[in-house]
Design brief:
Jann2411-like fold; ABATE_dom_sf; Zinc finger CGNR domain-containing protein
Length: 207
């Protein structure tokens, strides 16, 4: 995986957007849409949408083999498996067997192969670059995450109504929110209103 910052801008179907960094590309990928109640957040409607997402940094995997409907179906299956296993680990539950099987099966394909540029100072992915390679790379990253030292740092946002999940790789391990721009600021605002509602002296001092 490329050594660049993770994170993507997520868009609310009701309007607005915010920057969300899940701490791993595979977890960023898990937030490109979903099933059931999360289908309103779907961003991967066509194979071209998937190709565009994968081509963005930090993955920067530009397809040299055209993306197909079958590739999109496989990508959504992996996405759901990542979502389910991440939430299970965050809740300290057993990982769903079906989701684990999907991740493992996806990881059996050859991954992306890094290739040093002729100038010796940059790198890309050795062609041909096709969907199964990219999905394998994402699945392998999720395997490493679930089985590695940060496994216990996979968490769900502390907000009561936010299902976003992330891995906290910070040194103190104190991250609670999907984003301070979103749920963190909402919590601070609610806490401020609660203090002002119960402490009129403090409200006058803050005014």
């Amino acid at each position: 995986m490329r050594a660049h910052a993770t994170g993507r801008r997520l868009h609310d179907p009701k309007g607005g957007s915010f920057w969300y960094d899940a701490g791993a590309v595979c977890l960023d990928f898990a937030h490109t849409g979903g099933e059931g109640q999360y289908s309103v957040f779907e961003t991967l409607h066509e194979p071209a949408d998937l190709a565009e997402w994968l081509a963005q940094p930090p993955l920067a995997a530009v397809m040299t083999v055209p993306m197909t409907v079958g590739d999109l179906t496989a990508a959504k299956a992996l996405r759901q498996a990542i979502w389910e296993t991440a939430h299970a680990r965050a809740a300290d539950r057993d990982l769903p067997a079906g989701a684990v099987a999907t991740i493992n099966a996806t990881a059996t394909a050859p991954p992306l192969v890094p290739e040093l540029a002729t100038d010796g100072t940059s790198a890309g992915w050795a062609p041909p670059v096709w969907a199964a390679q990219v999905l394998s790379t994402l699945a392998r990253e999720m395997i490493d995450l679930l089985s590695g030292p940060l496994s216990g740092r996979i968490r769900e946002c502390a907000s009561d109504n936010c299902p976003l999940v992330f891995v906290d790789s910070s040194r103190p391990g104190a991250r609670r929110w999907c984003s301070m721009e979103r749920c963190g600021n909402r919590h601070k605002l609610r806490a401020l209103r609660a203090r002002r509602g119960t402490d009129p002296v403090r409200e006058e001092e803050d005014a």
